[in-house]
């Protein structure tokens, strides 16, 4: 019997070992992996949702960009310097270091959005689906990637330009790319996105990036590059649509904020949040409060005309009061989270007015664009008799941007872009116009040479 039993047992062990190995090699049956998820249109659409979701987080428009783009400026003052070990206050008073976790979170948040966008762009071409829908998916992913890189280069200057899905070892080989090259990639993405995206979406899909959003962001990129002729030519069709008022239109902020952001014709693109208690949205609806232990809104009421309907919305009075822009209503004892506007019609018209004036002073269309925004706010109109030079018109636009876009995370970037930093913040060294690269990111790469910004 032994001569039969031993071979049988041996075979049994071999079969058992082989079966166990196959069992251990099986992929999870109850969850997706990157190789099994992005294989069809449904997977791409789901991945696209995750791209938009990345913009919502506290790392980006839910919180950190408000500190980096607004508290850093002169509209808001941090009123709790000890909170969070002072990381937010240090950004306001220009003492931040590369160890600041707000910087680290924002850097990682943007590259998370880029990674997810790259995943879509990597997989989409090979998937069999309707070409028009595929183009819409690609256009949205390129828009989100472009927006992310636009923020990154405004915050840090030179940043790694990653256009493919990388593994960890590949990422460790990254180096920083010159901002001019990053801007060119942003331009390429937005130019292509504008041709692939629709001008509008059905109500059920409202909030997705449109061709108007891609073109408006493209014009903003040109504005930062001072390519004013391209700003004008890119924005002219959008301005015409705004004046027509059918799809786009300026809307008085008394109705645009705090309600109606999802349906307002003024909104070209906003980071959207669900109403009522969604985790990623809970913190962002407390964006600003007045005179409490978080921060104080310091934009002077005196710079608004008495009839200006924006004044009460951005400069509230009373302890704990929030500005009307973000004073979302309460529903079932849970604060309802409001959307965060990224591109608005009023912003487009002010960019248009600025660019027209830089091309040549005295353009009647520049006055029309500026006054459309002011009239919408119930402020007085400006005439050539009031703004008699290119410089006077330029300064009027700069002020109008501060009034119109207050608390929308654009103020700090406008101060830097327009060369106002020495005037607004005298004595602050120019190297602080951009932030220090997070030390954790430097630690993660193999070649650390040239990674930190000068001065830090």
From TrEMBL:
Localization in the cell: Cell outer membrane
Gene3D superfamilies: 1.25.40.390
Family: Belongs to the SusD family.
GO cellular component: cell outer membrane
Main location (coarse class): membrane
Superkingdom of source: Bacteria
Entry keyword set: Cell outer membrane, Membrane, Signal
Domain SusD-like N-terminal: 22-223
Protein name: RagB/SusD family nutrient uptake outer membrane protein
Residue ranges of every copy of the RagB/SusD domain listed in the record: 306-418
CDD domains: SusD
